[in-house]
TrEMBL record:
GO terms for molecular function: hexosyltransferase activity; UDP-glycosyltransferase activity. This is Hexosyltransferase. The lineage of its organism: Eukaryota, Metazoa, Chordata, Craniata, Vertebrata. Pathway: Protein modification; protein glycosylation. It comes from the Eukaryota. It is found in: Golgi apparatus membrane. It comes from Hemibagrus wyckioides. Belongs to the glycosyltransferase 31 family. GO terms for cellular component: Golgi membrane. Its EC number is 2.4.1.-. The keyword Membrane applies.
Length: 414
């Protein structure tokens, strides 16, 4: 390799430019393949073959000419009268709010909470990647998945399994991923380049210019609600979840059909009378300075929930009236409380894992997954394995032992 580079340095300027372009193209292609293979190597099979073939077809076209998304034509959706029709934030000019440093209890907070309070007023950021065409025409179900820039493998397995865009019984299903920017300053430029290439292939990424941190998940929530209110007047329902969930799309459609007369539909793995966690070592710790009530309003676990389009637009308007809160699913519960909408608890949403007993054989029972809407905490190899089992010639009979185990666990969670 070093001899090759030295020979290039000795070549003419014209040949150097030509070889440099070729080497760059090959390196990027190899890098993309290696990134997408992470977490799926043990799975192998048709998905890997299909993915690699697609990337080989697209690589040359990508480097010849990037697409001009501004030239795309879409069917204009129906918008509500008083809402803007384009993303209206083009730059970020946000400075520290020094006034919060004098508030009671500020100096006792950890650095992460101090940073959150210093910049909590910064809630509007530009879009880096936008796909308004996803909401063109009548869309029955929009699958919206929170992800981070380095988790290419999770997005890939979702695209090829339950997140595949399709039409079922005349009902159009579309897919989007929500991202911020990389938290790795050293690799930030490389990560962004890889994401651009990924979006070139799939065209399903919404990205905003804020850092993808845990506390910024609430920004991701509010920015999506705004985006939806601008572009998605014709979308009937939204499934919103994480990128490590197993989803039964046909089960979602059946549930939505049975709930079509429900106004302000919001369903999931709902927690009632949940208490703020006061242990500092816990990921979800909230200091009394930030929230001094003894209970949260009812909220659905952020791993996966359903809501109807009109309610999503109302949630956006309400979110503008509340101060941001570090936990995104609790913040959404606060918005629902203002709207006087009570979320519906449904046992087919398992966003906090299957059972408390992690050794239970039910955690690997495909017949259980087949009956669920959402199951949380599956990494790509496990998700792919379970997907194939559920969609094989699976024969499920009533197992009273397993049913009793489910019923007992659900009772403990109430």
């Amino acid at each position: 390799m070093f001899e090759f580079i030295n020979s290039l340095n000795m070549a003419s300027r014209f040949r150097w430019r030509t070889y440099k372009a070729i080497v760059l193209m090959v390196l990027v292609a190899v890098l993309m393949v290696s990134v997408f293979q992470r977490g799926l190597v043990s799975s192998g099979g048709d998905i890997q073959i299909e993915r690699n073939a697609r990337m080989q077809r697209e690589t040359i076209n990508y480097w010849k000419a990037k697409p001009d998304n501004s030239a795309e034509t879409t069917v204009a959706p129906v918008y509500e009268r008083d809402i803007v029709r384009t993303w209206d934030i083009t730059s970020t000019n946000c400075s520290i709010n020094k006034n919060v440093t004098s508030t009671e209890g500020f100096k006792t907070l950890g650095q992460n909470f101090q940073q959150f309070l210093l910049y909590r007023h910064c809630r509007y950021f530009p879009m880096i990647m936008n796909h308004p065409e996803k909401c063109s025409g009548e869309v029955h179900l929009l699958l919206v998945i929170k992800s981070i820039i380095s988790q290419h493998d999770r997005r890939e397995v979702i695209r090829q399994t339950w997140g595949k865009e399709q039409v079922i019984d005349g009902k159009k299903i579309k897919l989007l991923f929500l991202l911020g920017t990389s938290t790795n300053e050293v690799e930030k430029a490389n990560h962004q380049k890889l994401l651009e290439y990924e979006d070139y292939i799939y065209g399903d990424i919404l990205q905003w210019d804020f850092m993808d941190t845990f506390f910024n998940l609430t920004l991701k929530e509010t920015h999506f609600l705004k985006w939806f209110s601008i572009y998605c007047g014709n979308v009937q329902y939204i499934f919103k979840g994480d990128d490590d969930v197993f989803v039964g799309v046909t089960n979602i459609l059946e549930y939505l059909e049975s709930s079509k007369n429900t106004k302000d539909l919001f369903a999931g793995d709902v927690l009632f009378k949940a208490r703020p966690i006061r242990k500092k070592e816990n990921k979800y710790y909230i200091p009394p300075t930030l929230y001094n009530k003894t209970q949260y309003p009812p909220y659905a676990g952020g791993g996966g929930f359903l809501m109807d389009g009109p309610l999503a637009r109302r949630l956006y308007v309400t979110s503008e009236t509340l101060e941001l809160f570090p936990i995104d699913d609790v913040f959404l519960g606060m918005c629902l409380e203002v709207l006087k909408v009570t979320p519906i608890r449904h046992n087919a949403f398992k966003t906090f894992g299957l059972l408390k007993d992690k050794k239970s054989k039910l955690n690997n029972e495909p017949c259980f997954f087949k009956s669920m809407i959402v199951v949380h905490k599956l990494l790509p190899p496990k998700l792919l394995e379970m997907w194939r089992l559920v969609h094989s010639n699976l024969v499920c009979t009533v197992n009273h032992g397993l049913m009793w185990e489910v019923a007992k666990d659900q009772q403990q969670q109430l």
